[in-house]
Amino acid sequence: MFFIGGAAAVMMRLHLIEPAGALVQPETYNKLFTMHGVVMVFFFLIPSIPATLGNFLVPMMIGARDLAFPRLNLLSWYVYITGAAFTLYALISGGVDTGWTFYTPLSSHYLNTHVITTALGVFITGFSSILTGLNFIVTIHKMRAPGMTWKRMPLFLWSIYAASVIFVLATPVLAIALFLVGLERIFHVGIFDPAIGGDPVLFQHLFWFYSHPAVYIMILPGMGVVSELVTCFSKKKPFGYIFIAYSSLAIAVFSFLVWGHHLFVSSQSVYAGFISSALSFALAIPSAIKVFNWTATLYKGSISYQAPMLYALGFIGLFTMGGLTGLFLASLATGVHLHDTYFVIAHFHYIMVGGAVMAYLGGIHFWWPKITGRLYHDGWARFAALVIFVGFNLTFFPQYMLGYLGMPRRYAVYPAEFQVLDVMSSAGASHTRRRLLDSIRLSSLVHPLWTRSRIESLERERPGMGDAIAASHR
Amino acid sequence: MNEENPSVETYIVVFVALLILAALTTGIAYINLGTLNTVVALAIAAVKMSLVGLFFMHLWYSRGLTRIVVLAGFFWLALMVLFTLADVFSRSWIKPPGP
Questions:
Q1: Which residue, A246, A267, A133, is CA-closest to A141?
Q2: Which of A332, A323, A363, A73 shows the shortest CA–CA distance to A216?
Q3: What is the DSSP string of A73-84?
Q4: Other CB atoms closer than 10 Å to residue A358's CB: what's the count?
Q5: Would you state the pLDDT for residue A450?
Q6: CA-CA distance, A27 to A34, in Å (whole number)?
């Protein structure tokens, strides 16, 4: 799914090399950005760390043999595949062009593309998220080994637990919102269409009640991974363990209260906008606690710059930039100016790619020996980490400037004066990122599987690559 | 987990109660009560939901932690409704500028 979403992104960026569009028709462009968003958010970012590292590490870190409900876990995998099949069918049979947000009345009234099929795919996959979240919550509550108290748990578990709470509490609301879109499209029940008694902004409330917390589903596990990596490669105990742990929970709770900042220009009441803005600023506090604590953990640590650590350091820098630009968007006045511009695109890609994907790659490298018994090629992996960092910034930093200058998102054409910045962004996206993603996956991770370089000998050379559990204990 | 399970008789009584309430919802829909129609329908739905939760989902027989989890779900639902209604009700407080 990641490669499908990535291919759509590369085609979009290639298209935007020319102000008039170089590659596809505007209708196809709409379908490309929709597919990119739907695939990346629902089928890659949300399940990425919980489904891979979470399922593997949660039982191991608390000293259990498996998750509380192994069969439920398997079911969530089948459910995910079923949902993905529906969405891929929509892609193959003509695509959908609502944007990943499915806003009404565009999705419920005006479009004749495969809205129902795509929404059904997302609806089904939501159940896989709920089952996984439920499984983690029960496992962490009930199956901790004797002595593994809450305050001795590795920080990764705190963040996975917080994300699981959001999984369980928020995902049903997305399911309901998409179900209602289907109900209105098929049976013309008046829910979102004002002509038959509905309210189109209600959809945005329901959608963002899920989708804002979903941002934290994506980033919280990443924060957990980074907490482990920073601790391990600084060879220190985590600074302010309890603050990092509780800030995960604070993020999970506050994340449910701020969705109104997506609705500043959607005819939402200015008073509701004011409250959302203030709460969004409050949400920055627990995120900042984490960043300061990671930095304090690094302070006077014996830092080794192995590949996972490079990803973790990349995460800290990029997440900080993404987070701080989020405050621009959460302020009412600048938020209105920057709304639906490339500034927003750059902001959430700094969080999602610069944050979640960097943490995912760092985590996969870090625990790769634990999972496979083989060590990746460290030289290639470090090289890939650095070039991904550079390529990412080349792709998305120009988009901050484009957005600030007023280039709107989701348009297939743009004024000629934006071309230089757009070409920079496309160069970063299509060349560096793709090459390096290939490189990291093929050269550094998969290659060692058939080179038979046994982990035992390599681990003696690199003692820092050991188990995270001991390192992250207080 | 549970101390006891509901008996078959309890299930049947609850099921019949749900059927009666469903019939009541349908019947009241034919009587014009103005805005009260929605209120009554929602009230009946809440009673039905409570019956399903308490007996079919065994909340009546569950321990504290399970009940807290369910209450947390309702709390979050209340948050969603509260913030959404806060927007809807305060939209008209400021009139848009213009003629």
A1: A133
A2: A323
A3: HHHHHHHHHHHH
A4: 28
A5: 52
A6: 11
For chain A, residues with pLDDT lower than 70 are 431-474
**Coil, strand or helix at B30:** coil
Question: CB–CB of A37/A95 below 8 Å?
Answer: no
What DSSP string describes A381-440? HHHHHHHHHHHHHHHHHHHHHHHHHTPBTT-S---GGGHHHHHHHHHIIIIIIHHHHHII
- Give me the pLDDT at residue A286, please: 94
Estimate to the nearest angstrom the gap between the alpha carbon of A409 and the chain centroid. 19
Please return the burial class of A318, using the count of CB atoms within 10 Å of its CB with bins 0-12, 13-18 and 19+. buried
Q: Which residue positions in chain B have pLDDT lower than 50?
A: 1-2
Q: For A107, list phi and psi in degrees, rounded to 5.
A: -75, -30
Of A13, A68, A59, A58, the C-alpha closest to A36 is A13
Quick one: how many helices (H) and strands (E) in chain A?
20, 0
pLDDT given at position A434: 61
- Is residue A164 within 8 Å of residue A101, measured between CB atoms? no
Report in angstroms the alpha-carbon separations of A215 from A166, A218, A348: 10, 5, 9
ipTM of the complex: 0.82
**Which tens digit of pLDDT belongs to each residue from A418-473?**
999 999 999 888 765 665 565 556 556 665 555 545 444 444 444 444 444 444 44
Structurally, chain A folds into a number of domains equal to: 1
Which domain does A72 fall in, by range? Answer: 2-472
- Cβ atoms within 10 Å, residue A203: 25
Give the global pTM. 0.89
Residues of B in contact with A277 (CB under 8 A): none
Tokens of A446: 């998969």
Answer whether A170's CB lies under 8 Å from A214's CB.
yes
User: Does residue B93 belong to the interface with chain A, where contact is any CB pair within 8 Å?
Assistant: yes
- Cα A284 from Cα A250, distance rounded (Å): 10
Looking at residue A231, which CATH number applies to its domain? 1.20.210.10
pLDDT in tens, A95-134: 899 999 999 888 888 888 889 999 999 999 999 999 999 9
- Please give the helix or strand (H or E) that residue A332 lies within, else none: helix A332-338
In this prediction, residue A447 carries a pLDDT of: 58
Q: Which residues of B touch A257 (CB under 8 A)?
A: 79, 83
d(CA A58, CA A50): 9
Percent of chain B surpassing pLDDT 70: 93
Q: Which of B35, B65, B83, B93 to mutate to test the interface with A (most CBs of A within 10 A)?
A: B83
How are the residues of chain A apportioned to helix, strand and coil, as percentages rounded to the nearest 5? 80, 0, 20
Distance from C-alpha of A387 to C-alpha of A460, rounded to nearest angstrom: 28
User: What pLDDT does residue A397 have?
Assistant: 94
Please tell me whether the peptide bond between A369 and the residue prior to it is cis, using omega within 30 degrees of 0: no
Determine the distance in angstroms separating the CA of B86 from the nearest CA of chain A, rounded to an integer.
7
Nearest CB to A169 within list B73, B83, B93: B73
- Residues in B closer than 8 angstroms to A199, CB to CB, are 88
